[in-house]
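To whoever picks this up:

The parser on our side crashed when reading a file containing two proteins. I've narrowed it down to the boundary between the first structure block and the second sequence. Both blocks are reproduced below exactly, byte for byte. First block:
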Amino acid sequence: SAERASGALFELDDETRSRQRSAPAVTDGGSAAGGASQGKPPPHIMMSYNWDHQHVILRVVAWLQAHELAHRVLVVGLGYPDTVAFNIPRRFEDLTPSAVAGRAGSGQAGAFLDFVEARVKPRIARDYPLDPARTALYGHSLGGLAVLFDLAHHPARFSAYFAASPSLWWDDGRVMPQLQQAVQGDSCARSTPKTVIITVGAKEQPLNTAQTDNPERAAKLARRQMVANAARANEILARCPAFDVDYRLLAGAGHGAALDRGLFHALARWLGRAATAEPTP
């Protein structure tokens, strides 16, 4: 392990895969970890599937400190040891639930989510208490898709699920029917209460593709229906009595800005603070 600010860097290998894959868990416990060791309640624990853990950890810790909440949250950021910024090829492998033509290696989200459950959580539990009622999973874009996929198939793994700008367009919207299936029957009604937060930037689905400086990108965004799909997922999941679903359309935000703003809104909502979820410089 190597020290990182008030946290630590752990490198884990996925031995179940044909090729080695490492997923460092960058944790920032600060006084949250110290409080647990003194007999106080375990901290809220949020795992981030952003794969840009350097960016996320620094931003979220700054936000928590600015709101005097750093003592309440242990942040676990998941990333790659050879990546400083976003690793786009690996995201399309590890955050997509199904394989599609033209994206070699895609469709391995299920395997990675199992890896997090079997390897990452136990590793974190060695140093910090894990309270199932205080754990959250966050992801943006393809990470948001993976979050909703995990909620649909393994809702007991976390007590809160935060999906920012989920890429529900993937594989012709295959995850959407899985969400519908998840809220049907008695199993959803008997589920333990969950907090589900879905956010999306208002600019992620342009109303008029002709009024833009980049018509090609605007057309792609229009096809992906980011806002409509997020709203639809909200409608579906709200049918489950056990899910406390919060949907937020982030005014003026594009796909990039929705990363931070979606995360900050989810944290504010989860921790019971006023949802002034604007980025902290």
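<<boundary where parser fails>>
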Amino acid sequence: GYGQRTENPLSLDMGSVKRIYKYDMIARGILVVINQKGFFIIMADALAYLRQKQENGGFNELVNMHVRAVREGYAEIELPASPNNLNGLGNAHGGAIYSLCDVAAGTAAASRGRVGVTLSASIQYLRPGKGGLALFAKTREIKHGRSTAVYHVIVTDETGTEIADATFTMFYIGDCAELLK
């Protein structure tokens, strides 16, 4: 690590900081974004910023996924019940369940201050997700390394019934501050 640490990250004198503990700042709930002109923008609630980026725009917004909880190395994502998420049998579509796991693992990886893309994944569908029930994915961090992270993801429905079990390996492609602008 590098930069300077302080007990209250909001009290940092940004003029005197040459480099930032990006990981440390995310863990403390602070996101420092350096714009193209080199100016610092301090987001006082980094996890709220991450939640906003995950929910607004693109595929996640299209299928109405919501970040229920996020903290260092952990994410919980909700996929509300919707006719659009069902297969021809009236159950949750396997692709929707896989996508829920992927978003959960990606969000957990991003909570470390870095953006991860899926390198590999394995999923076991344990039972059908009944139509009309919301689905929830919760992660458990197995490994967090320099270039990869591994997450175990469990999907349950709103009654607590386990629907799927997955393992995702994420490859880090850069820092959140640079890639989530």
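After patching the parser it read the second block fine. Strands lie at 31-34, 40-43, 66-71, 74-79, 114-125, 135-144, 148-157, 162-175. Confidence is low (pLDDT under 50) at residues 1-25, 39-43.
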